[in-house]
Amino acid sequence: MKFNKGIFIAAVLTVLAMQVYAQGTKINPKRKQAIDSLALEKVKDLSKYISLIGDKETPYSEATRVMDRAEELFAPDSEMGVSSLSSEEINYYKVREYFERLMALNYDKVKIKWYDIHYISDLEQQPDGKFVGVITIYQRFEGTSEDGLSYKDTTKKDITIYVEKKSTQIAGRVIDFWDVLLGDIRVAETTI
């Protein structure tokens, strides 16, 4: 294979231009506040969706619709962690599989509540131009069955969030906007 100096230089300049462009993307403080609010709102929406999916009184068709909506909150290939007091192992599932497993839990009543939702890291720009941050939540899980089976735990979870500038065309005009997607949800600790 013959080395082509012109192609090599063009490739290096393209990579440098991409890095300069990515590093040049800034979020002004007012916009940052709006992005933070959007990220927290998406996490709160997910909390509601998880509660509905896990609730045994939610009709199957409604739970399926809610799963579809919840999936839209996530970046592709995101995973959610599942832990238990009875094991130190943490299992990770793709988002849809997590929801399906949640809906199929063998309890007559499931109650899931998220609380103390807050940022633990500020947004940091990545080389590709996206910004990444982490939101922490606490999840209280309670599952009970009529035959006396009962399980409760509280799990601290860290949710990766991705912020990216995107464009759309409306009435022939290109409009730039910031979008927030949720990423992996990692288990930090599980307690009683």
Describe the structure.
The structure is a single chain. The protein is an alpha+beta fold. It has a single domain, classed as Nuclear Transport Factor 2, Chain: A, CATH 3.10.450. Helix content is 35%, strand content 44%. It contains four helices and six strands, in the order αααββαββββ. It has a four-stranded antiparallel sheet, covered by helices on one side. Strands 1-2 form a two-stranded antiparallel sheet. The protein starts with a helix and ends with a strand. The relative contact order is 0.17. Residues 5-24 have low confidence and may be disordered.
Per-chain topology:
Elements: H1 5-24, H2 29-54, H3 60-71, E1 79-84, E2 87-94, H4 95-103, E3 109-125, E4 131-144, E5 150-170, E6 173-191
Antiparallel strand pairs: 1-2, 3-4, 4-5, 5-6
**Extended strand count:** 6
Order of helices and strands: HHHEEHEEEE
- How would you sum up the global shape? globular
Sheet-strand content, in percent, reads 35-45%
What is the residue-mean pLDDT, rounded to a whole number? 87
**N- to C-terminal separation?**
62 Å
Radius of gyration: 21 Å
From the coordinates shown, what is the CATH architecture?
Roll
